[in-house]
Write a structure and sequence with these properties.
alpha/beta; six-stranded mixed sheet; four-stranded antiparallel sheet; 34% helix
Length: 252
């Protein structure tokens, strides 16, 4: 079966600095795939290269059989992908409902119905649709950002650190919603530092180290892998999968 997303030997970076070196990953339809790895490994850079926020310098990005490498982020949305960055992912001066309307800029009909459908998943947002996004908690803003990305009903959703800096209760809610998104038919590719919780809901996972593929296993296999456990699940020791030196924030 042809994967929904097939990333083949992608390299990317910023200016003359290459962060990602020949990375290959794939995502099947109705699958959650999580990318983990040390800071500076190029995880977020890879997501941006896949989505068109930065242009890959090498490799192919195949989405539903079409080579989309080099398309702009706007064109990637048209192709059926959505992206939720870690920060600056909502319009703080706009209301919850206005943010969702902005996410529906290409939708010709059914906007209100789609808004109601998505708000039903998040009762706290549904109770105050006229609240400005800047007054929401971190978890509520993340939920709103995910809903906005889903307004155009993408087949693939890219999430960059969806639970960063959230409380355990909000992390649990966001992860539950990611499962619900997958179950609704949308494939999810995410970068996540809360690796254990992410892998518990993931069909498969990848480890990136030094901007390169280091490991691919099912989520369950990664959770049971002692070396992954030592390095990324809270039992940190030296091992054969070597974490790279700390990198700049933009190099995650």
């Amino acid at each position: 079966m042809t994967p929904l997303l097939d990333v083949q030997g992608v390299s990317a970076g910023y200016g003359d600095v290459r962060i990602v070196h020949g990375v290959s990953i794939h995502v099947e339809a109705r699958e959650i795939v999580t990318i983990i790895g040390p800071n500076g490994a190029g995880k977020s850079t890879l997501l941006k290269a896949v989505f068109g926020a930065i242009r890959p310098t090498e490799g192919r990005v195949i989405l539903e059989g079409r080579d989309v490498a080099g398309l702009s982020a706007f064109q990637m949305v048209q192709a059926g992908a959505g992206f939720v960055p870690q920060t600056e992912n909502v319009f703080p001066s706009l209301t919850i409902r206005e943010n969702l309307e902005m996410g529906a800029y290409r939708r010709q009909q059914g906007v209100n119905e789609r808004i109601d459908e998505l708000l039903d998943r998040f009762p706290e947002l549904a109770r105050r649709p006229n609240e400005t996004a800047g007054r929401l908690s971190g978890g509520q803003r993340q939920a709103l950002a995910m809903c906005r990305a889903l307004m155009l009903e993408p087949r693939l959703l890219l999430l960059d650190e969806p639970t960063a800096a959230l409380s355990p209760i909000m992390r649990e809610e966001i992860f539950a919603q990611i499962v619900a998104i997958r179950d609704s038919g949308v494939a999810v590719l995410m970068v996540e530092q809360n690796a254990r919780e992410a892998l518990e809901i993931s069909d498969r996972g990848y480890v990136l180290v030094n901007g390169q593929n280091a490991l691919e296993q099912s989520g369950a296999e990664m959770l049971a892998n002692p070396e992954v456990g030592r390095l990324f699940l809270g039992r940190v020791e030296s091992g054969a999968i070597e974490a790279d030196a700390p990198g700049a924030e933009g190099s995650r």
